[in-house]
Design brief:
The chain is α+β, with helices and mostly antiparallel strands. The protein folds into two domains: 215 residues, no CATH class; 138 residues, no CATH class. Helix content is 45%, strand content 18%. It contains 13 helices and twelve strands. A hairpin with a 5-residue loop joins strand 9 and strand 10. Helix 4 packs parallel to helix 11. The longest helix is centred in the last third of the chain and has 27 residues. It is globular, with a radius of gyration of 21 Å. The two termini are 20 Å apart.
Length: 376
């Protein structure tokens, strides 16, 4: 988080919504399902449960029923902060934020959700998805594993992957084995070969997260990586006045919202209970499967195309999940999209708040350098 203001923004979702919830000048908007932490790096590619490649919103840990404008304000703020961190001129950031807002509203006004897969993609996203399709699963496995005494095991680098206490590891692998036999084993015949503690993301640091190396025994043998992440309460929860569904657990909230908002969800998306804690299971996606704005910051046409795609996906996710568990119906979202009166205030708030983020970041950075966060 001390790296730059954009990383700080990604890791302080709770601060963003604490401040946003106290602002009365933001226009009213329909209640929708939001992923809750929408920023430039929470879009990415993945293989769906139908094994096709998609580019979509990909982080639902903070998912909540909230005003649609909350989601939009966060992504617009991330454009201002993200572009500034990349030294992209402010006028380009304002242009991108305006383009996002206009495209988002246009898709809502049309009332029909869209999606992106290789056949419907354009520009850099098309080449991005093509690379995902070509990339072989065995290459991903090779990067993360090593042969030891004739066995394929995780390569523990103490950066992204760490060892698990042997007793805990045995218990965890046993629990997942039982889950696989109950839910999937008849179809695929899986066998767990290894497990490791996984570090990934910024806001997820401190959350229990594991990765399993699994071998598919039936049919053509191959290895898969399964991510298992602890599901905690959304950081929006303290600031929401809207009643939320009575979820059985936090994993159900994350998974249900993801199913509603995405066109196709990642493979193996499911819930698992371990030691009375709830976890979200899904096929692991490599960290590289996100748009690297550093590589395209000097290519305005590529940036414009990506921003339009992200706006389309955001509006489509809200349309797709409309009418679910208290969210507005599509007709309300359609009328909101047609109404342009809220655009100016929303853009202004996002720009003004980006300045606040930079002030908070400087305060955080000073404290970090003074080892404040290492004190008991």
């Amino acid at each position: 988080m001390a790296q730059n203001p954009f990383v700080f923004l990604r890791g302080t979702c709770h601060l963003f919504y604490e401040d946003l919830s106290q602002k009365k000048e933001l226009p009213n908007s329909p209640l929708t399902w939001i992923c809750g932490d929408l920023h430039l790096e929470n879009f990415g590619s993945y293989k769906g449960d139908n094994r096709l490649e998609y580019f979509d919103l990909n982080d639902f840990d903070e998912a909540s029923l909230a005003p649609a404008i909350w989601e939009i304000t966060r992504i617009l703020t991330s454009i201002f902060i993200g572009f500034d961190s990349l030294s992209i001129p402010l006028n380009e950031a304002k242009k991108a934020a305006t383009l996002f807002l206009g495209t988002y509203a246009e898709i809502l006004a049309n009332g029909k959700p869209k999606y992106i897969e290789p056949e419907t993609s354009k520009g850099i996203v098309k080449s991005f998805l093509k690379a995902v399709g070509i990339r072989k699963q065995k290459e991903l496995i090779r990067q993360r594993t090593t042969q030891k005494n004739g066995k394929l095991l995780f390569r523990i680098d103490n950066t992204h992957l760490y060892k698990i206490d042997p007793k805990l590891k045995r218990e965890m692998m046993s629990a997942l084995n039982l889950w696989l036999k109950k839910n999937l084993d008849k179809q695929y015949g899986f066998k767990i070969r290894d497990a490791a503690f996984r570090i990934a993301g910024t806001g997820s640091l401190g959350v229990k997260r594991y990765v399993f190396l699994i071998e598919k025994m039936k049919g053509q043998k191959k290895y898969l990586l399964i991510d298992m992440k602890q599901a905690l309460a959304s950081s929006l929860k303290p600031w929401l006045q809207t009643p939320q569904p009575n979820w059985a657990n936090e994993a159900e909230r994350v998974i249900s919202t993801q199913h509603w908002m995405q066109n196709v969800s990642p493979a193996f998306l499911n819930c698992m209970v371990f030691k009375n804690e709830y976890f979200v299971l899904k096929e692991m996606q490599p960290l590289a499967d996100k748009i690297n704005f550093q590589l395209i910051k000097n290519k305005p046409a590529n940036i414009e195309r990506v921003i339009m795609d992200m706006a389309m996906l955001t509006a489509s996710a809200q349309l797709r999940s409309s009418g679910r568990q208290g969210s507005a119906i599509a007709d309300e979202l359609l009328e909101f999209g047609k109404d342009k009166s809220w655009h100016k205030n929303t853009l202004q708030y996002a720009y003004d708040y980006s300045k606040q983020v930079k002030k908070d970041y400087l305060q955080f950075q000073k404290a970090y350098k003074k080892n404040y966060f290492s004190k008991p």
